[in-house]
Amino acid sequence: MGSSHSAMQMPHSNSSCAVDESIVSTPASTVTGTLILSIVFLLGFPGNLFVIWSILARARKQSVTTLLILNLALADGSLMALTPFFIAYLAFMNWKMGTVMCKVLFYLCLANMYASIYLIMLMSIYRLVSIVWPQRISVITGKRTITRVLAVMWLFVMVASIPALIYRDARRNKENRTVCDSFHDKDPDAVLQYMLENVLGFLVPYGIILVSYICILRRIRQTKFRRRIRSEKLILAIVVTFCLFWLPYHIINMVQVASALFPECSPKRILLEKIWKKFRAVTSTVAFISSCANPVLYFFAGKSYIRREGLAFMARLFEATGMDYTRKSRLNSQNSRDKDKDAEVVLQDKDRDSSTNSNSNIKLTTEK
């Protein structure tokens, strides 16, 4: 496979019209990226550790939503632990950790992206079922069921991230710097790699999230219980925040894919390569912000508990979020049961009236 790729691969740095392909080719973007990543690490690493500690040590009861938030914090916290490596990469504009670390670190980054969006997708699906089909919520809230779903999701995440192990490599660029980058950027396989990342990491899960919220909003309009509960606000904030921070990254991915589709040295290709090279470092580091944003969202959502609960305020927030779902489901289930009872009472009254009328008719006939 390696030899066939080498034969197909077009020249990179030797081409007179090639644009430097490393994300560290622009000093301004690397400085910006270094500052962003440093702030992200200082906020995100302790923040996600605090979320994990709150759930494991302080939460009295773990709901489905709490379990999903725990997995999300584990994924984000793992990424935050890797951030110093990328800070050093951008600061020195040189990859000094070898090919193995290049492949492993970018594999873990891609896995975190997939894990985050699919955990958010599972939150949206769970919310959809709890509001639209509350009578079926008990089927998916069992511990064994949730554990199996999460295991399948993590297995999918690990498999979907394998292209990072295949295509990432530490190599020299035309400025004689060592960079960690994809070394088959002009191969059809590389185009497929970036397309899969866009489709599996954004379009498919966000399509499911969008459909889920459309169904939820339609259902809420049909019910009497339109009160915005805490869990609705929190999970909607997580969804919107993730989209805002990851959308620029996926747009640059699409620009990079489009550039590979044009002939080499064509003006359109050169222009597109300049665009994605200029913004790749910034959009990649902005995407990291999503991993430190969730603890900040939890803090503002649960600040009303701080005075009463102290350090356990976040655990109480997650417990209340789980109770919101349970309460909402019970209300909807109770509504459906009440409707069934009302319908049954009406039918019984009709049967009673019809039997009374028939008895009256029989008496009249007998008397005659």
Query: Please, how many helices?
Result: 12
- Tell me the number of structural domains: 1
What structural class should be given to the helix and strand makeup?
mainly alpha
Strand arrangement within the widest β-sheet reads 1-2
- Fourth-tier CATH superfamily name: Rhodopsin 7-helix transmembrane proteins
Q: Which architecture would the CATH scheme give at its second level?
A: Up-down Bundle
Query: Would you tell me which CATH topology applies?
Result: Rhopdopsin 7-helix transmembrane proteins
Question: Can you tell me about this structure?
Answer:
By secondary structure, this protein is an all-alpha fold. It is 79% helix and 3% strand. The protein has twelve helices and two strands, in the order αααααααββααααα. The chain has helices at 2-8, 27-58, 64-92, 98-132, 137-140, 143-160, 162-167, 188-222, 230-261, 267-301, 306-309, 313-367, and strands at 168-172, 178-182. It has a two-stranded antiparallel sheet with strand order 1-2. It is globular and about 60 Å long. GO terms for molecular function: complement receptor activity; leukotriene receptor activity. It is a multi-pass membrane protein. It is found in: Cell membrane. It comes from Xiphophorus maculatus.
Fold blueprint:
Layout: H1 2-8, H2 27-58, H3 64-92, H4 98-132, H5 137-140, H6 143-160, H7 162-167, E1 168-172, E2 178-182, H8 188-222, H9 230-261, H10 267-301, H11 306-309, H12 313-367
Antiparallel strand pairs: 1-2
Helix pairs in contact: 2-3, 2-10, 2-12, 3-4, 3-10, 4-6, 4-8, 4-9, 4-12, 8-9, 9-10
